[in-house]
Amino acid sequence: MTTTKLTTEGAGAEEAQARRLDRADPGSRDLFHIPPADGGRYPEAAYFAGNSLGLQPRATRGELLDDLDDWARLGVEGHLEGRRPWLPYHELLTGPAARLVGALPAETVVMNSLTVNLHLLMVSFYRPRGARVRIVVEDSAFPSDSYAVRSQARFHGLDPDQAVVRLRPRPGEDVLRAEDVTGFLADQGHTVALVMLGGVNYLTGQFMDIPAITAAGRAAGAVVGWDLAHAVGNVPLRLHDWGVDFAAWCSYKYLNSGPGALAGAYVHERHLGDRGIPRFEGWWSTEPATRFLMDPVSRPPATADAWQVSNPPIFSMAPVRTSLDLFDKAGMDTLRERSLRLTGHLETLLGRITPTTRPVTVITPRDPRQRGCQLSLRVAGASEIARRLRHRHGVIADVREPDVIRLAPVPLYSTYHDCWRAADALAREVAEDA
Predict the structure, then answer these.
(1) How far apart are CA 30 and CA 393, in angstroms?
(2) Global confidence as pTM
(3) DSSP state at residue 371
(4) Distance (Å, whole) CA 194 – CA 227
(5) b/e per residue, 14-46, with b = 16+ CB within 10 A?
(6) Residues 306, 279: contact at Cβ < 8 Å?
(7) 83-115: pLDDT as tens digits
(8) Taking the mean position of all CA atoms in its chain, how far away is CA 177?
(9) Sign of the torsion angle spanned by Cα atoms 35, 232, 154, 195
(10) How confident is the model over 214-272, as pLDDT tens digits?
């Protein structure tokens, strides 16, 4: 047997402590719909899957219905006469999105989906020439990023097995050290056309050293882009100041904009207005003032809007706008401070789980500066344990095969009591298996 299972007295004291912390540091849970629990003794789920799909803000439904009502009431005239006219609607999202990623409004646009944006940006910024043809990614890149860069290499007539470099952690380690990335770029950067890493790694939760890697990549003569799917709304970003060439992100994880929500893209101002950069174009790529002149030749603006292709889907933009407003009001720096407290509390609780037969190992960096609000746990039988967490205890986590459970205490809506529930439930389940 193991000593993992908490005593009633110990569990009661930790639960009471969690309740006290929630009273002192409540977050904004009341602004969200919390799913009901599918098991356990609490009515609401302890939701730790915001790194996969964020919860619905309560304001989303009403504001989306307002836009639908304008369609019913005005028809085509809603483009100019709606409460939020559709023709310039995407501009409502530009400022809040730019503030969230530390960019200038001219550098930022909300459009398409994440991988579509990465492809559109790589059309412009992956330009292999001579010996400089390689694309650098992390070995644990999200699969869609791997597929995207390999297909880009093939599109240019290159062998993806040769053109794509996958950087791995050192033997026996779980995360990729920043100094190993910068060291590779110092040594072999002359062969690299593009560096494209995840800002926060989806599997381990590691927050990469974006400024150091960006500087190293650019010093080596490469273009540096970032997939920020797990970073936006999770960690503070300063894309403009860090000199990042381009970036893209989705809005359905920490940005709570709904499944398949519209994504974002960023292009540094040094590239804006450069007519020598190849780019795919469509109706929304041209200057707004010339859009309805129906000219056959585009006149792209000197902003990230030039990377737009199609007119924006208004009813998909509405939830993004609603969510960005929440972040504007809360402030990313304030959310980061609560995230550090909340994730640190969960880490402390998980550290008290000491099974003797089924080890539970945190593979996320222990340094809070090197992670966001995710702790990834390596444990045998992860899928079955996650199923029991949900159906026996009302704790929703997610799994990455073969053996990783990811817990994301999101600072907007997660609570210290949620953290206690997750740790207590995990301890009980691991003990039961012993």
Answers:
(1) 22
(2) 0.95
(3) B
(4) 13
(5) bbeebeebbeeeebebebbebeebeebeeebbb
(6) yes
(7) 999 999 999 999 999 999 999 999 999 999 999
(8) 20
(9) negative
(10) 999 999 999 999 999 999 999 999 999 999 999 999 999 999 999 999 999 999 999 99
